[in-house]
Design brief:
With 213 residues, the protein is mainly α. Helices cover 61% and strands 0% of the residues.
Length: 213
């Protein structure tokens, strides 16, 4: 059994994500570029956007050595240091035509992981600038499918229990991507300690304080 969504839905979810991010970034005042991102405490708003922009750039350039490591993501931030939010939005769009040719050929489950990272950071950004929204996007479903699939490999059967829990797909996605505290997960009747244990050794670490977005 797989919880992964079909490739065509994964591709469409990323395209919709990119459109939302470009619009969101263009709405954020430049004065907020230096705000700290609570869920990515080493980054400012501009740094997080640089990471989002940098992923398709690196895929297109074949810069995949050390993918996902701190050094790999920091290189994306460094590459765009000093650029305005408006410039970052424009740069994201400049890679679109070429990346959209490559995107359908990214194999599963890597394509779903790409969307999972993207949507997690979209809501990290929304949290940082106080602009909630898009909690029912297709990318939420893709990300949740990836995360449930990951859980199923760690603890067979647990993913189906979580899927059937009655918790909203958005809250479940945020919980499994390390964006809900143990107490918040307990309030959702998800057994926060168990989920934190399942995610041990992954980048998804439950925050110590509640996260509202």
């Amino acid at each position: 059994m797989t919880f992964l969504l079909p490739d065509a839905e994964v591709v469409q979810a990323y395209l919709e994500f990119r459109s939302r991010i470009v619009s969101l970034v263009r709405e954020i005042p430049e004065s907020q570029a230096s705000l700290s991102v609570p869920l990515c405490p080493d980054w400012e708003v501009s740094s997080l956007i640089s990471h989002i922009v940098g992923i398709p750039e690196d895929i297109l350039a074949g810069r995949m050595e050390g993918v996902g490591t701190e050094a790999w993501t920091q290189a994306q931030v460094d590459r765009h240091e000093g650029e305005s939010l408006s410039q970052l939005a424009d740069i994201f769009l400049t890679t679109a035509a070429e990346f959209d040719v490559v995107l359908p050929h990214i194999p599963s489950p890597v394509n779903s992981q790409l969307v999972m990272d993207a949507i997690a950071h979209e809501h990290d950004l929304r949290h940082a600038v106080g602009r909630a929204g898009a909690q029912d996007s297709a990318a939420v479903d893709v990300a949740l499918g990836y995360l449930l699939n990951m859980v199923d490999t760690i603890a067979p059967g647990r993913a189906q229990e979580l899927s059937d829990s009655g918790v909203s797909r958005y809250e479940l996605m945020r919980s499994l991507s390390g964006r809900r505290s143990i107490e918040q997960m307990n309030q959702l009747e998800l057994d926060g300690s168990q989920i934190a244990a399942l995610l041990k050794g992954t980048p998804m670490v439950a925050p110590h304080t509640a996260v509202e977005i």
